[in-house]
Amino acid sequence: MLDTVAFVQTRAGVPALATINALADTHVTVLNSGAAMGVPTPCTKIAATLFVSNTATSGKVNGVQIRTPSLGQMASLDFANYVANSAGSEIPGDEPPMDLFFDNPIPLLGGEALSVYTTNTGTNNESDDCVVFLTDGLFGVPLTLNALGQYVDSNGNVLRVQPILFNWSQTLTAHAWTAATLNPSQQLAQGTYICIGAKVSSATGIAARFIFQNSTSTNRPGVPCVASLANTVDPALAKFRMGRLGLFGTFSYQSIPQMEILASAADTSGQALLDLVKIA
After folding, report:
1. For residue 94, what pLDDT is reported?
2. Which residues form the domain of 19?
3. Final residue of a structural domain among 135, 165, 196
4. Model's pTM, two decimal places?
5. Do residues 166 and 195 share a domain?
6. 18-51 confidence digits (pLDDT tens)
């Protein structure tokens, strides 16, 4: 299971590490006057991080850290991969700069203050966007496998994992989560589906996450955005597909999941490929 949270801020260069603001939404608690958020439960382990920045001058980010009280027992988490200066364009493109911890997620404590710190050498305003993908550490799909490694129902019938294309059209707000309605490119058959992966495109998108309307969970599983669904072979993106990170959510054909997009600038349309299994 995944959850997705973000931190954003636009400011002039800071020579020493300083916090950027937690991006508030209805499923997280913002702490310390906006400088931190409480780690949401049950997804209390860091699975991956994504950071991009845009500076208008020759300055650049030269350090990114995650800090929590429990991490402080050893050391803050330093980012190895991030866009330090994208020369006027903050979009991560088709190879998002990510640190991946899926094989050994970093444990935090539920409710503790999670903060992101950055430092940069720029003199003009710089926009920083950081996305933290959290997990409960359970990456299994709640379906039975047969001897051939295929998903099957209770009668032994094989269940297909099938990518389905959706389109979205919505004016995005920069540096905020914007809700976008998903419209299937073909009519879904009546029934119940589970989503076990996704790939989302937006010209200015940084990350996208999903809200499953009938779910009892408040988690919002997310994925990095790409500029185009085509010609994208980054192994990091493949991690978010075909059940590798477990169940995203369950929905009826009449209740398509809601999507939210974090973007660096306004955009109006894009696509989403959802990996679906029809279970009923």
Report:
1. 60
2. 2-135
3. 135
4. 0.92
5. yes
6. 999 999 888 899 999 999 999 999 999 999 999 9
